[in-house]
Records
---
Amino acid sequence: MSIEHDMNMTIRLSRREAIRCGLYGAAGLLLADHLNIPAYAEAPQPSKLIKPRAKSVIQLWMWGGPSHLDTFDPKPGAGADFCGPFNAPAKTNVDGILINELMPELAKIANKYSIIRGMTHGNNGHETAAYLVQTGNKGGDGLVHPGLGAIVSLYKGYDAGYKGLIPPYVVMTQLLGRFSEAGFLGAKAQPFATGGDPNAQRFLVEGVIADGITDQRQRDRRELMHKLDTLGAHMPGSAQMASFQQCDEAAYDLILGDAGKVFDLSTEKPEVRDMYGHTTFGQSCLMARRLVERGVPFVSINHGGWDTHKENFPVMRRKLPELDKAMSALLKDLSDRGLLDSTVVWWGGEFGRTPRVMMEEPWNGGRSHWGSVFSSVVAGGGFQGGHLVGESNATGEEVKSRPVYPSDVVRSICELMGIDPDATLTTPQGQAVAIAPSTWSDVKPGGRLSEIMPG
Amino acid sequence: MRKVSFKIVASVLALVASMTFSWAQNGGHIGYVYPAGGQQGTSVTVKVGGQALKGVFGVYMSGDGVVGTVSDYFRPLNNTQALILTDKLKAAAQKLQTTDPKVNLPNLDDPSKAALIYRIAQEAGLTDKDLMALAEYRNSRRDPKKQQNQQIEEIATVVVNIGPDAQPGFRELRLLTPTGVTNAIHFVVSQATEQTEVKPNDKLPNDLGDKLPAVANGQILPGEVAKWTFAAHKGQHLIIDCCARELVPYLADAVPGWFQAAIELYDSKGNQIDYADHYLFHPDPLIHFDVPADDKYLVVVHDALYRGREDFVYRLTVGEMPLVSSIFPLGGSPSAHATVKAVGWNLASDKISVDTSSRPNGVYPIVATSGKIESNPVPFAVDGLPEIVAKEAGEDGTAVERVTLPVIVNGRISQPREVHTFRFLGKAGQKIVAEVYARRLNSPMDSALQLTDSHGKVIAFNDDAVDLGAGLVTHQADSYLTATLPAAGSYDLSIWDTQSKGGVDFVYRLRISPPRPDFDLRILPSALNIRRGPNASGTFTVQAIRRDGYSGPIEVRLKDAPAGFVVSGAPIPALPDKPAADAASAAKAAAGDKATFKLTVPKMQPGQPVTLVLQGKAMIGGVPVIHDAVPADDQMQAFAYHHLVPTSAWLIDVMGSPVAK
């Protein structure tokens, strides 16, 4: 264990060392910022003030790359070679907008969201494409840029006055694994992954709700830990220990107090839970609503299973109704509670899928990766609903008009959150870099999602 | 029961029908054969795994002396079929209970209840085959090593009779089905005794004995390792060669996109002697083993990432086989008998005589022999241009020599970091082409070429150039450059290995000449299956591979075809005048350089495929140039890459089952 002693006999412990010493439980990890652990990069002052329209972002990340033709950009006119069995897309409540026929609930509320059909970046690798979309950066500059969640966490988190006990960046329920959410911003901007399953009988949340540990047992453990705390007893008046004790109280407030109750879905009305659907994704969407109600700035739901190289249509038949139920419920619920105007909902994955169905072996009716053109959906937080941004060609194979690049989406959401998209971040090496480039392509420029944003 | 939309059902049926129709055009697909070979003079029963094989009735085998016959066909149950059979058993058990209350449907996986299960099955009207299929279904759902892969789940059992004089080497095995002839899969005829593994052999090894050479056939399932022992004697020079990727070159849904075998060699005390997961640039591993002492040695085979699947098939050969690792020169002119120097192991001689008389330009396989045993075949290039042997590099690692164009230089990068330079006099406006043949001729060299003028100014440079015709080469390491000389004077063309490697095997063949516009053709697919009927016809694609800038149109026609076979269609069009802006555009244009043709056939009998030869013809410099098109199949590697893999014959078949005699 390495401990540095400064002149005032304060002791600076790294978070890992504190845990190893068993001083504080896992819940303390949630509140690590209070331990005065230095971030790799500091949040800079924004270059100009932007009035925020949104307070939170809910990212619905469809890991694996959802087929754009089978979701929000159907092409029945291209023939069965492209649309497969989905040749009768649903009319929505917005004239001229069609979506997959297995999403009737979302079809009824198309006025609440807008579909970006001109998304493009041209990359077909999961990890690289995920990086491009989540960070809005092209890569190749020797830096690991942070994802939008980490950027929001930095600008809207503890350094910006966020006082919630729940971390400002929450991931439901697992981290992506092949992607560094925080990038060069470091541990301070890392999300808190809940773990567990919100659709389970009891939603076990990492460090907050443990299996088989009742609240009383948590209290008993706390009492035992305090009795064993000889270090604190030997350092009365230490500012650092006082800070640790604050963390202790905050952590247990989260575990045992009202703040932690946000994870207790049994307090939600059964009809509301039914509305979202009793699936992990559905209940995650419900959790996301509860988290933004409590002011959490960024919630990401990682929902995998979209990498349909094989069995594309059977998988779509299972996943689309689930998506339809949960996402429509989320939008309606946010709207009914007056939260949609202040919450950006951002749906999409790292790319789309091969428009022409791959009938040959071994795919037997699958679709491969397609970064040339794909779809994303945005709603709320200042985005106008009921519009299309960009267009793919008749077969969904390339952008026909108005390309939208990952940087366009990231910058637009930043702006709605009141984060200056032209602000710079400082890397650990002291380099000032843009959040995301303002221009992705000189040949086919994209740009701010002005079509669906105010002013 | 949930109401299902008729529209959706109809759509699904339409999709299934279209899928069936697509498969009907393709004649089914096979993914592996196991075991993947057999010894001359033996009969071996093999399993061929594939898809859409129902009704399989025959075997096509390339070459002479090897004949296959289908003895069985198995298709696993799907979920619905398994449910139906299980329900039948339950109903039968309930019925039997009325007369015998002790009867209850037992656990179907309990071997002690076999008699009762059989009794219930009889009552239910199930056959032995039904029971076996149900058992296989249940096992596959329970066994974590059994993955469901539709493309290889159907099994055709084939008995292969290999004549005593059948030419050793690789054959192409295809199945004949009611929807036509399938793609080809490799089957190997060997001269050594063969064994097929008996699982489990991950703890207790199978034994090859001491009569070498011997071949072990195996199949690696997920996470598996296979162990083989063999007895060897001090002084033996053994080759331990694991053939895996050579059998199934590409897997579309795996990364790496083939079975990447690894082999480990141990002595009887468990000391690891050697390990290999490749050989030179070949993905298949090979170990040279100079046996230090009499002992029983152990070879362990597994995938480098411990993956596995039914199509992860290997052939492990152990013995003092002749192995040629390289030859020099890599080619020669067609008008003389050539003698090449061979480097390798267990070679009776370090020279191979090659008869190249009357051979047109091309690449031909040659072998060395040790007694009656043939070595691995290696490519030998034939070209009519003047040839020289490059000078050896000096102590400083460089060699500079004057050459007169056109010329083919045969050289060797003997030491790492050598640079060979060929100096020639050129004229202003003179067009030259420099092309390396190394990787494409089995050399591990990774070449780079650079053309400079007399002041050292770089005129042209190239590292890797793609050749669509080299379908089995995944690292297209050979260099190719063209240049128009800006002025009269002396020019230097330098060649080196970009990986700074060198050695006896790092041989190359370098052509420096004016452009020789030419072309190659690939026919896709290699088996064309046509629906019977009046004016029966099918469509196929011909991919052009242009050489040295030939950009004109290319006609196609049949060569010596039987009556009634007619090809129609417009020629492969000329390339646009405007050259591609960049390498990516050029690659895209090259891949799109093809045309579709129609083949009309006379009345044919199903199951009796006809071999046709298609020729391409172009007028180049006012002279007709004609080449036979090479049949090929477009195979995908690792979800992304496409390769045109050549086959030996273009087969035409009509759909249907053969008429019973």
Note: Confidence is low (pLDDT under 50) at residues 1-25 of chain B.
---
Amino acid sequence: MWNHLRTAEPLRFISGYLRLFLLSMLLVACSEIRLVGAYDEVTDLGIQQVQGEVSSLFVTLEKNILTNDLQSNSYNNFKNTYNQIDGQIESLQIRCGALPKYNQVLKQVNLLDSNMHLMEKFHRSAGITDTLTIGLLKRTMVVSFRSMIVVQNALKREKIK
Amino acid sequence: MAILNVSDLLNTMLGAAKESAAEKWPVMKDLATLSFKNISQNLVQIELMKLKGTITEEQSKLLIEMQKNAFKMMLLAQETVGLLIVEHTLNAALDAVRAVVNTAVGWTII
């Protein structure tokens, strides 16, 4: 019986320390829990830049309609603008893909990319010739960007903390 | 003659969403209502534009796809803000016991 205790005590002692060590390692690893990556100014500015480009695109389309210059709204005149926006979104995708725990933001950027392609397809298919259409497209893009800004602002508050 | 109207569409969508989201509804209510309002307005406008002959079937499908993407983006925003709240809560809990634990153990483990 004593022999059993003599061998069991050190084991219990070691196992106690091992438990404490493992707990310490776990707490050190968890000293700051991160579920979403930290705020990234480059990403935020990139989103703002794309938003600015898309707003300018809508303003140009709208002005052309209001001045009865419908010819100027043909897709070919906006091909370069769409390409430029595409490039900016691609840069954002690369950056967000490289940042740790940026999956949520990356998913938003991917959906923005999809929406820009759909809008381009819309423009290419039959043109944009009335303000009602622009209103529809604009409202949808506003919801998209607003959702992205909500995330960026939430991440900013985290940085300030 | 137009058949669709914004408030009918909005109420139907809100009712279905509320039932589907169940206990999660209060969390997403504000942003979801805004998105559904937007979708309802757009659906009514698509009908008007179809009647005026200013939109094609392909274009209306593209618009609906865009709406769905925008809605997904809104849900992602909601989800991310939720994750950040959880993150802050967990870190606040660890902060609260940091001094006591570190002093008791004698190591800076938190």
Note: Chain A has a mean pLDDT of 86.
